[in-house]
From TrEMBL:
Transmembrane segments: none annotated. This is DNA-binding response regulator. One of its GO terms (molecular function) is DNA binding. The keyword Glycoprotein does not apply. InterPro entries: CheY-like_superfamily (IPR011006), EvgA-like (IPR051015), NreC/VraR/RcsB-like_REC (IPR058245), Sig_transdc_resp-reg_C-effctor (IPR016032), Sig_transdc_resp-reg_receiver (IPR001789), Tscrpt_reg_LuxR_C (IPR000792). Gene3D superfamilies: 3.40.50.2300. It comes from Comamonas terrigena. Residues 5-122 form the Response regulatory domain.
Length: 212
């Protein structure tokens, strides 16, 4: 039986190594898997069903703001996700919380505090630094609408946001073109969007004005 595993997803090798050092010191009973992009994160989650927690940088290649967080939460709702980011603006932290993260650890956090935060999340609690940003009803409504999408529909939505046509999406995701059409219709209905462009703008709203 595979050992319980933690997945560290960050595109900076030195920071990834530093986080893994903290994990090995604090949580030696866990195996560790790495990912350096949104694509390798998805592949790692498929290859390692024993993953019990994901530590996620929001600014990896292939990520679009909070899209990776939403995608992981939609496809693997049983796995808690802790955001690790250099952008600890209160609104970023609040959005991470509203979009389903179980925790948020600024990259400037001392190792002991990081370890305590991960202990809390693995015990079933949440861990966030103090915030002053107010809850956003718009973000709450957006999260609720996106939560209606199936994992496949979310993948199609991200392709829509990249401006791909149905035929291109079908090739990208290995689907029949008619299946893509059905997904697009369902996506627009669930998101209350009147056009593909409007859906793309909605995905754009998942990004932050500041680097994450």
């Amino acid at each position: 039986m595979s050992a319980p595993t933690l997945l560290v997803a960050d595109d900076h090798p030195l920071f990834r190594a530093a986080v893994m050092h903290v994990l090995r010191e604090r949580l030696p009973q866990y195996a560790i898997v790495e990912a350096a992009s949104a694509a390798t994160l998805g592949a790692a989650l498929q290859a390692h069903p024993e993953v019990e927690l994901v530590l996620l940088d929001l600014a990896m290649p292939g990520a679009r703001g909070f899209s990776v967080l939403l995608h992981v939460r939609g496809e693997y709702p049983e796995i808690p996700v802790v955001i690790i980011s250099s952008n600890d603006h209160p609104r970023v932290i609040r959005r991470a919380q509203q979009f389903g993260a179980a925790g948020f650890i600024p990259k400037s956090t001392p190792a002991d505090t990081m370890g305590a935060a991960l202990d809390a999340v693995l015990a079933g609690d949440n861990w966030f630094p103090p915030m002053v940003a107010e809850r956003s009803e718009a973000d709450a409504a957006l999260a609720a609408r996106l939560a209606q999408l199936t994992p496949q529909q979310f993948r199609v939505l991200l392709c829509l946001a990249d401006g791909l046509l149905n035929k291109q999406i079908a090739h990208e995701l290995g689907l029949a073109e008619n299946t893509v059409k059905v997904h697009v219709t369902a996506i627009l209905k669930k998101l209350e969007c009147y056009s593909r462009t409007q859906a793309a703008v909605l995905v754009k709203s998942l990004e932050n004005d500041q680097d994450m």
